[in-house]
Amino acid sequence: MKVAINEDGKEGFVFYHKGRKQVMVSHPDSSVRDAVRGYLRTPRDFSLGNKDGSSLKVHAKPSQHINFMGMALGEMVYYNGVSVDWDHPDNIEDITDVPEEDQQVQESHDFVIPIGGGNK
């Protein structure tokens, strides 16, 4: 998953590698990177619906499952003011690795913060 994030008119991206359960955050503002990283590192309650209409509460880090990432990113603006641009043309729904062109950007700008995977 690759989604665009925006705060105060400045754009960045959140990358999620679902196989490794790893998140990377890129944004030109270090305070935004820190806010997104802190938010995505924090375990929270997720409510999962069942076919019978009941729901199951799960306490987990967003990085533990791609569905948790989607739910957490959808609510992130309410926690730290950083919004997700779900309609951004560079968004990618399902990636297994960071695209090569994005790796080059990350290496040249030194603003990517890897976030530990699922079971840590």
The helix content, as a percent range, equals 25-40%
Shape: globular
Q: N- to C-terminal separation? A: 20 Å
**Helix and strand run:** EEEHEEHEHE
Overall pLDDT score: 81
Relative strand content: 25-35%
Main sheet makeup:
5 strands, antiparallel
What keywords describe this structure?
alpha+beta; two-stranded antiparallel ribbon; globular
Q: What does this protein look like?
A:
The chain has helices spanning 30-41, 66-80, 100-109; strands at 2-7, 10-17, 22-26, 44-49, 55-60, 83-85, 112-115. By secondary structure, the protein is of the alpha+beta class. It has one domain (2-115). A five-stranded antiparallel sheet has the order 6-1-2-3-7. A two-stranded antiparallel ribbon has the order 4-5. The longest helix is centred in the middle third of the chain and has 15 residues, at 66-80. The two termini are 20 Å apart. Residues 101-120 have low confidence and may be disordered.
Question: Short description, anyone?
Answer:
By secondary structure, the protein is of the alpha+beta class. It is built from three helices and seven strands; from the N terminus they run E-E-E-H-E-E-H-E-H-E. The chain has one domain (2-115).
